[in-house]
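Expect chain and fold; see below:
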Amino acid sequence: MNLLKKHKKEAVPRKKKAITIIGSSLAVVIVAGTAGALFAGSEIMGGNSADKLSGKESSVHTVVEKATEKTTSPKSATADEALPKKEKEYKFKKAKEAEIESVLKNIPALIIINEDGIKEDIIELCNKIRKNEDNSITPIIVISSVKEKEHRIQVLKACVEHYIKAPIDEQYLYYTVKNVIRLLDTNRRVSPLTGLPGNVQIQTEIKKRLLNNDQFSILYVDLDNFKAYNDVYGFLNGDEIIKFTARCVANHLHDTEDESNFVGHIGGDDFVAITANTNCEKICQDIILEFDQGVLKYFNKSDIEKGYLEIPNRKCVIEQFPLTSISIAVVVVDKGRFKNVLEIGESAAQVKHLAKMTPGSTYVIDRRKNI
């Protein structure tokens, strides 16, 4: 049965990239992805701009405009000419140079270091970042006025991905950062089907919040009787339901005021959503409501009227399976309740089992406390 032509292509809502600017006496720029932050050097940033770059409405346009303010020639292209005005993909925060170790706990996606604005030796700083277990593979870009070839080679030997000579060209810096982040998004095991972060980023996101002793909720989402659907309608139509499920979850996690919300795709029909909201009953109810109303378009009229699918088992006996539904197992992670990701997974498996025992779409929330 071919239902594919009935479905319009819809994009899964994307989360903005978080960028944190560290301090008025700043040392390093970190441009971060879904799990990261940014901190910038005083020389490269051109001033104390805590209020201006508060993270409310800023974009990467602001980063590069400020970054080139003191280092580019008057003849250089203006920031308005170099950068798209409608760039809304990145957000900003602020901290101080002394907080580098603290910021690294947020496991940034990309680090840009202004060598001219730091006191520490650039090689030692890069090695320090590489020795940090959680940032051993974080890409590093160095901006420096030192033009000697030997110095550049030594810096690149320190596992630095890119070296940009100052003064900075706006367009070159902008598209270097943008393309590195694009490659990260492509290569960090992002689901090719839904475009959502995969297992590596899911584990990173959970670990980051545990390290910061945050309080949050994790929603483990999967489909019921999905194999039966694939057996009847085929894997291509099954893929459409998976993409529809991704949109349902993302719609109610990313379309909120909480920009720290995260949605990941474990694989198959399994998803994870993370929110700082520990009272997430409405989120679960809204996901289920949208799913149950929308999933029917992936079935033919006959199956909808029957309310089940008929499939022969291995003994050629016809069995009946309910139409595909959705189950959500929620674990509330209170401060100090779990020591690691593994413990959360064990608790989630118990809650997921309870959710699966209830026919139809349902959610179960684990609010148990440590005794």
Notes: The first helix runs from residue 42 to 45. Residues 19-86 have pLDDT under 50 and may be disordered. The chain has 13 helices and 13 strands.
